[in-house]
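Training component of the fellowship. As part of building independent skills, the fellow (R.M.) carried out the full modelling exercise for a liganded target. The chosen ligand was S-adenosyl-L-homocysteine. The inputs are recorded below so that the supervisory panel can assess the work.
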Amino acid sequence: MATLTLHPGKERSVRRRHPWLFSGAVAQLDGRARPGDTVDVVSSDGRPLARAAWSPASQIRARIWSFDIDESIDHAFFKRRVAAAVARRAALPELAGQQGLRLIHAESDGLPGVIADRYGDTVVVQLTTAGADKWRAAIADSLLKATGCARIYERSDVEVRSLEGLEPVTGWLHGAASDDELVIEENGVHMTVDIVGGHKTGFYLDQRENRRRVAELARGRRVLNCFCYTAGFSLQALAGGAREVVSMDSSGPALETARRNLALNPQLDAARALWIEDDVFAELRNMRGAGESYDLIVLDPPKFAHTAAHAERAARAYKDINVQALRLLAPGGLLMTYSCSGGVSAELFQKIVAGAALDAGASTKMTARIVQRLQGAADHPVDLAFPEGDYLKGLLLQVD
Ligand code: SAH
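Fellow's submitted model of the complex:
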């Protein structure tokens, strides 16, 4: 096995159990290693620290599989890590039995570059790094054994793979497509999941608990769901007794699936649902011009900042939609607002939203208070040693 020696002092992050080794930390590689191969990581004075996956194309030159220098990285390793991740979910009552469930949340489950989501008896896996890519067969086999699922589909078609020198890979790793449409039940609502063409692995599982919260808050309210995708928040609002739910997205196909989801739930009153295919930035302004107002607004935009370097431009975009949404709220109204940008911290996001509230309040005399801080669901845990995993943050505001 090749040995990766760190520069002096660069062992500190490893001792704090951070799993990434950037190019600037690496002094040399002795021996031969192909992309994805396991290497021994040692400090500048030769003390063994960890075992990691080598990725020469990436700025993150190695990702640590194990901080135990005696642990072999082999099929049995993946079997243990996958089984442990599945067991962690089974031990939490709100997760046990969920039909849509994230089984593996990459670094935070000790498996850098590995995402696995379960939808009924189908697992969708996404491998984003050279190390994860190399262990595809072991990971797929371990998932089958740990879950008893019938089929595994790979959705490794994300842009970040190019940073690792990897081509996109999609297709069935085990089993084949079922003739039936893939539908899951979430908080009592049926949702179709397009694992082949949908975003991420087909569905935004991270918002499950927050969608449930919307159901609790929606009764009697006029709701606006911005960036609605396939209407997850919208259908929960209808289920919770909303008076009307207006859903907006710029994607025609997403709205088509959204309507299909509504049709899958005959218990919901379809007459209360309205759909707008448009740009949220423009349409929020139009609504204000038309004198519209809402009692509950959800803002769950796509990632505006892909890295911390884009945080400033992202901040302007977040501020803009939050100002516009706050101006549309009726007195006593609620705003549920999110950022899923890793480069925007919870603290920065709160500052941005506070700035938006000041701007909105200047014309409307509105004041806003945080009544709840929101985050991803428990199947998207954040390893305390890996704060980068804490990407989803939200605020529930009440205005008057
Ligand atoms: N809230 C959703 C996930 C939102 S994903 C859920 O719980 O499932 C983000 C969505 O924003 C995507 O559907 C994308 O089509 C849409 N989108 C991106 N930019 C947009 C814009 N400027 N205006 C309207 N929709 C946009």
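The panel noted the following from the submitted structure. The mean pLDDT is 97. The chain has three domains: 3-66, 75-174, 188-399.
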